[in-house]
Amino acid sequence: ECKLFAAMLYCFVLGKASLREIETACSTDLRVIYLTGQVNPSASSFSRFITSLIPKISTIFPEIMKAIFRSCSVPMNTLFLDGSKFEANANKYKFVWKKAVTKNLQKLLEKIPAFIEQIEEDFGIQVIHGNEIQLYHLKRLHRKLKRLQQQENITFVHGIGKRKTPLQRTLETLDEYIRRIKDYIYKLHVCGKRNSFAKTEQDATFMRMKEDAMRNGQLKPAYNIQYGIDAEYVVWVTEGPQPTDTTTLIPFLQEFERYFHTSYANVIADAGYESEENYLYLEAQGQTAYIKPNNYEISKQRKYKKDIGRRENMAYRAEEDCYICAKGKKIAAIGERKSKTRTGYVVQKTQYACEDCSGCALKAQCIRGNNSKIPLEERSKHFEVSKTFQQKRAEDMERITSPKGIELRVNRSIQSEGAFADVKEDLHFRRFLGHGNGNALVESMLLGMAHNINKLHHKIQSGRYGQYLFPINSAA
Questions:
Q1: Whole-angstrom distance, CA of residue 131 vs CA of residue 7
Q2: Hey, what's the torsion of the CAs at 142, 143, 146, 151, to 10 degrees?
Q3: What is the pTM of this model?
C-alpha cells in the first residue's frame, strides 16, 4: 500500500490524476517504476486503493502536514481560508430540483382524495383514513382491490384491441400513484437539506460555476472544496454540497481542530464567509477574524455613498435608538424579530419604521423596490438591523483596515487564490474523476498533498524555505 500511495501521489505531483495515466506512468516513467518496485499496477488496482483510502485519508493528511511544518518551523498562527467549486463526474443535464419535486408531490396528494371517493362509489370499498392520506392507506386499498379481483374472477388483459375492465384501469392508476409517491419521497430523501442533486451522481449538488462555456449562467453538478492555507501550504481540505461559502467556515475549523488538536489564532477569509454566526463562533473560540465585509468594495463607490435610502448613510442616535433620514425625520425602533438561518442559528433583528413619510419629496429616492400592491404614496420607510452583526462588523472593519490586516488580506489573495490556481492550471485538475463524497475528498486531499510537495520543492530551490508571509511591497 505504501508503494501504491507513493506512486499515485507522485503522479498527482506531475499533474496526472487519471487512473489510466497513472497506470501508463507505472510502466513508462522510471521515477514511478522505482516507487512501485518495478510492479505494474493496473488502473483497477489504483481504483480499489482509492476506495480503501476513504476512511484513512483524513488521518494521513495531517501527518504529512505536521512533518512539513516541523521541517519548515511554521508557527501555525495565521490561516487563510478560501473555497472553489470543482465539477463532479456527472451528467449536467440530468438533475432533480427539490422545489419541483415538492410541488409535484403536493399536486398528486391533492388528486388522491377525489380518486378514493370515486373508488368507494364504484366498488363499494370503504377506505378508512385520518385527516391526511398516507402511503400505507393506498397500499391497503390496493390489497382490497386485488382481493376483489380474485373474488369476482376478473382477468386482466393487455395489448392492442383488448378492452380493460374498470377495475383494471383503477388498479393501474393506483399503481402509478403509489410509484410516483415512492419516487418523490426517495428524491426528497436524497436531497436532504440540499436544493438539488444530479441523477448520475447523487452526492453532487448543482451550483453556479465560473467556468461557463455558454455564458448563460448554467448550473452544473459540483462539490464545494475548501482550502485552509498557511505559509503557502494547504493545511486542511474539506468538501461539501454548500453552494456558498458562508456555512463552511465553522465545519472546516471544527474538523481541523479534531485532526490537528490545535487551532489558529488568526483566520482570514473573503466576503463570502461573513455572517453573524461566524463572527461569534470565532470570538467564542478565542480566534481573531479578518473577514472582508460583504459591502466593503461597493461601499467605496460614489453612488453608494450618495444613496439616501441606505441605512449606512443615515445618522444614528444611540440614546433614542433611531435613525435620521435625509429629510430629518426619525426612523425609530418599533419591535424585535427573530429569524433562523439554514444552520439553525437564531438572528435577532430590530425593526425600524419612519414616523411619517407622507408628502416627502425624497420618497422615490429613499424607498426602493417595486411593490405593485401598495402604491408608493402609501408606503413608508422601514428596515431591519441586527445590532450584534453590525457591532462585530465594525470591530472587524477596524482590524482589516489596520496595517496588519492589510498585510494579511494581501497574503490571502496571493496564497489562497494561488493554491487553487496551482491545482487548476498547473496540475490541470478541474473535474473530479471518481464518484461520491468519499472519492471527491480523497482526490482533493491528494491534490493538496501534491501542491504542498511542489511548493516545498520550489521554496527550497528559491531560498524561501522560511518565508511565511509576503511583504506588501513585494506583492505589489
A1: 63
A2: -140
A3: 0.89
